[in-house]
Amino acid sequence: MTAVPGSSDLRRTARLETVDYLATLNLPGLGQSLLPWTRALTSTETAAQFHVVTDAVIGSESGALLGLRDFLRAAGEWCDGHGRRALGDRYRRTSELLDVADRLLFQLGVDQLAAAHPGPTPA
Question: Which of 2, 16, 66, 67 is buried deepest, with most CB atoms within 10 A?
Answer without folding.
Answer: 66
